[in-house]
Fold each of these.
Amino acid sequence: MEILRYGRDVYGRETLEGASWDLIPVFAVIGALIIVAHLLYRWLLAPAGR
Amino acid sequence: MAASTIVLLGTAFLPILGVEFPWVTIHWTTGVVLSVLVIVHIVRSIFFKPWRAMLIGARDMNDALAVLRFNLRLTPREPPMPGKYTLAQKGIHATFALVVLTAVVTGCLMLAKIDTPFWQRNPYFLSEPSWGVIYLLHGFAALSLITLVMLHVYFSLRPEKRHYLRSMFTGTLSADEFGKNHDPQRWRAGDER
């Protein structure tokens, strides 16, 4: 998996083009994991009250 | 701001995920709308709202430690009630502010690379390496918004936070909700302009 995207400029030199779009599912999965962890915590471990 | 952020994420990522449509015009015009809304929000918050309520201070850290101790069952004593905002709310606001401002500033610079009814494109406005950094920051800001929007929606829909979701639309909390969730000594809601 790439983190950065690279291309070539008009002179053939390697140039940075931005963040790699391979990371889209990574950021979505991070969000999903935090949500699942919080759901499990609230369901199984959280003390009563606030 | 929420609606424009959703439109911007959709027009940014759906074409990458294979949903083809003419996204550029929708994306940049919505980006301009978001930029204006961010400026209005900043001016309104500074001059017409108690913006200090959103600052993170030592007391928030003490509150967070008390919440942690209570949740880890190290103490049976419930943590103190927050003022207007909890540390979690201030934290996600600060994170959104950093990410959205990064996206807005880099996005405004990227407007130089497209033709609009108001100006002609000038891709040489910045050097090639500088554009790479601008695109990198814009991309990571957009990717971070995927996670942040997911968390924001999830915590807004939590049953114990439902009154905050409603108050986002109505701007009000009932006296009962206020009493159960906030310390009236730390948030004198009646004094707000």
Amino acid sequence: MRSMPRLLLAPALAAAGLIGVPLVALVWRAPWGELAPQLVSSTARQALGLSLGCSLSATALSFALGVPLAWLLARTAFPGQRLVRALVTLPMVLPPVVGGVALLLAFGRRGLLGAWLAALGVTLPFTTAGAVLAETFVALPFLVVAEAGFRQVDPRLEEAAAVLGARPGFALRRVTLPLAAPALRAGAALCWARALGEFGATITFAGSFPGRTQTLPLAVYLALEHDPDAAIALSLVLLAVSVAALVALRDRWLGA
Amino acid sequence: MGARRRWLAGLAAGLLLLAPAAPRAETQHHEITVFAAASLSDCFRELGITFEHWTGVHVTFSFAASSLLATQVQHGAPADVIATADEVTMSKVADLVEAPHPFAHNRLEIAVEKGNPKRIAKLADLARSDLAVVLAAEEVPVGKYAREALAEAGVSVAPRSLEADVKAVLNKVALGEADAGIVYATDVRALPAKVDGVEIPDSQNVIATYPIAAVKKSADAESARAFVNFVLSEKGRDTLAHFGFTAPRIP
Amino acid sequence: MLEAELALRLGTLELRLELAVKAGEVVALVGPNGAGKTTTLRALSGALRLAAGRIALDGRVLDEPARGVFVPPEERAVGMVFQDRLLFPHLSALDNVAFGLEARGRRRADARTLAREALERVGALELAGSRPGALSGGQAQRVALARALVVGPNLLLLDEPLAALDAGARLELRAELGRQLREFKGAAVLVTHDPDDARALATRSLRMAGGRAES
């Protein structure tokens, strides 16, 4: 093992501590005795089910929309490309509540597109679909930055594939995507994690209603106001689900 | 060696000379933090400006749902004064504050879009299936009161969303996403350009009582109490009335 | 039979070349780096488009800007062995060789059978299950050769096939390459900077410099 530069030890420990101590505190101070009824309460189950469903849907949607865009940004050159790239990564720096307001102004009843959708009978605010949309809005950028995954695939390999007789679609499926897969998977995992924890955009755009739009983070926020024990219980559920998923993914999918 | 000791002594003497000056400097820059229910935001901001003008004490506000504020105070948040939208929430922090005083009342009102395009006239109208109605969550005082009023009136409502605080309810109506929401009369007055109010008759209404109290562990108890007294004073009552609150009934 | 009049610009290089290669002929393009040899191959493979001129293979026009004709690489019957081999790192040697066949519509089982035969012909059958990362330079080159030949091209392009090999592997591979080129029925263009390789493998040499042929 390489000897560690002593200079790095203190900051590294501080980093681990900054993240670790609050999480340990959460687990330590949890009222384990009263936890059981909280964990199986209908609020918790509804919120968890909704969170999982919405976050997975948002990830799938982000994948379907983000990967093609990532490919276009990596492999083509079109006018305004830099603007598009900056635009699509904007939700990463935008405060989520601002994102929620923007979504309302776009897809709300009086929104830019929302007014037309309403005329067609499609409502997005206050619906589960709206929650998925809000989560996709904040999580999509994580897949678009998987553009780097496409870039690190040698374009000459795609050239070789073409000379061998592969049409662009075949080359994409059999060469580019498999080679970009590790980066795409990592992006998808981050995307899912972001969607799962999303709060501001969801509560602003989709509102909060149990079983319909009240995902775990929203349930925790509300519970905090009247029942801190319930809030801690729900937080532990969220924590457990996240840790389980990330640990499972790390070994098989995200590992080098 | 000797030089250093002399230098330290000089420094210590200098500090001692400055010490009496320090408290004087402090009285110049007092600051208190006031936690207040979301529905008090516009009114208290104005009270804060007047208070600073009169006493030189700068007031920083934190507005949120009363229940959340109470939880934060319970966990040691640095509030000097807390004002909640109901007495039940204040009782949660009873052991952390000095005796609370009711300083204002608020009544419920239905907030609707400017111009009332959906022609909402009474609580019973909120049960209409063509309306998008938004309420505050039950854990929030205004949400609890709204439910009480609806139950008393025998109206069954299917809200689209249960928001985290009263301002969120108001905003949904102001943005045009909801047709109606039950908020406080003062909230309706806060956005006259965007929102109209439909009165709820006394018989169906729930009167909210707002208590205010100084926090015991305040770093500046004197200024905290001064603010509480200011809110209870005639000037305070005038400002509250201006924003739509009603005066506390003298017990 | 390859008939080509090439005219294109790539960066600072201006390529102007006339090339005619009969079936069974191996023409070596010799010259220093930057002479335009690889560019020539890429124009013939379709990776680069001509600015002017014409490429025709066995009577079929592959690229003629004046008439707006351009056949993309995947539709030309061209096989290419690249300078860095460019084997697909995520596929086994066998699947690498089978790739071109599958791309052209063969079922996987058939493609693999033909691929095995092709690997045997270049003496690399035992490498079938290996990943490109595990192969030596010479071994990888054999696989690349099999990959190019198995699809039955009419034109074979080889870009510095013996570069980056140690002396022993070079001689071995040069012998193998010579065998394959003699058996190959179509036209072949070989790029090399080594005149000895050109002499050993080609029927004719063409010196290039600065994007043009030296007379």
